[in-house]
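A quick aside before the break. I want you to see a complete sequence-to-structure record at least once, exactly as it would be stored in a machine-readable document. Don't worry about memorizing anything.
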Amino acid sequence: MSAATLQRTEANDQLSAVKTDTLPAFCLAAIERHNKPNTVSEKRGGEWVRVSSDEFARRVRHIALGLGEVGIQPGDRIGLISENRPEWSIVDLAILSAGAVVVPLYTTQAPDQIRFILEDSGARVLLTQESLAASNLCHRPRTHERTWRDSRRRAVETR
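That is the input. The structure line, written in tokens, reads:
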């Protein structure tokens, strides 16, 4: 057996030993197993900002705990609108980890479309990035809007 085949076999054995009965558990197990220094990255002000596997998983867990603390229950629907950015992936996985359902929204959708999707889906919460929340693009009465910073701060408080 070649070294590459042996390595793949060992990786498959490790994967099957990890309890991955849900999609979020499977994703987090893969993230932790690969332990990359740049699980997600983005360029800010001309500099690359990297989020390691450990930091990615920590943020997912803290946001998921924060969602539970504010009353989100398994099966609740949560609207998520953002431009493409690392936080979208983190919050998306946190919502799923909390057992909630992601209601994805696009920044290019008209406010009336966003309002209809939120009302039709029964979303309890709308998570947005700060610049969208500030523009009132996503305003909907009875929806608790939280920005990325609010979500992270709240999740950190649950440590």
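Two observations worth writing down. The radius of gyration is 18 Å. Residues 18-157 form a domain with the Rossmann fold fold (CATH 3.40.50.980). We'll return to this after the break.
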